[in-house]
Amino acid sequence: MELFYRLFAGFYDSLDITYFRNYEKSPRKALLDAISENDRVLDLCTGTAANAIRIASAKQGQQIVGVDLSAEMLNVAKGKIKRAGLKNIELLQMDATHLEFREHSFDKILLSLVLHEVDESVANQILAEAKRVLKPDGEILLTEWEPSSHFLQRLLFLPISLLEPKPYRSFIKKDLPSYFESLGLRVQSVKHCNYSQVFCLKK
Ligand SMILES: C[S@@+](CC[C@H](N)C(=O)[O-])C[C@H]1O[C@@H](n2cnc3c(N)ncnc32)[C@H](O)[C@@H]1O
Asked: Do residues 135 and 104 lie in contact, with contact meaning Cβ atoms separated by under 8 Å?
């Protein structure tokens, strides 16, 4: 998987230009709307920090921690944060299956477009760690792909289905609410966005 991100880091952000071009209907906007001013936010598996940057730019008083395993993705993120002149994002290279934070550290944890790329045992571990570091009344805001029923959008989504790593094929067939509940996470709401859905989960 690390090779996958090393290869794709440079043009990962074309995803936003293609699928999330309509910002109002994008999961990026749904996440921004779900964050309150005083929330301590963790962007788990932040990648190129697409979500962290949107939030940090819109809410300058907000402190956001972004973690990722891939040095290449973090390098792209660092460049973008520097160019945007943002001082309120801290990036850390860290494995999401072994987070170096105390329990109950964050109000909101973002986990965006990650679980479909990893084996189920890794996904379970990432969610267990997210649950551990989430405050008792905190929320996990989890974005995942949701193939559209519109013909044209299904056609445009083909490259995603073909290029995604192997776990995608079984993940996309999962009953996600039942899966989350089996891990002790209650689904509070689901927002349907372009090509994707955003779950709000509580423990
Ligand atoms: C498809 S990208 C999503 C990036 C970002 N969250 C977004 O919404 O654009 C998936 C990211 O998960 C990271 N990742 C995968 N497994 C990880 C792990 N065990 N610990 C930390 N990061 C991980 C990858 O390095 C990659 O940057």
From this structure: yes
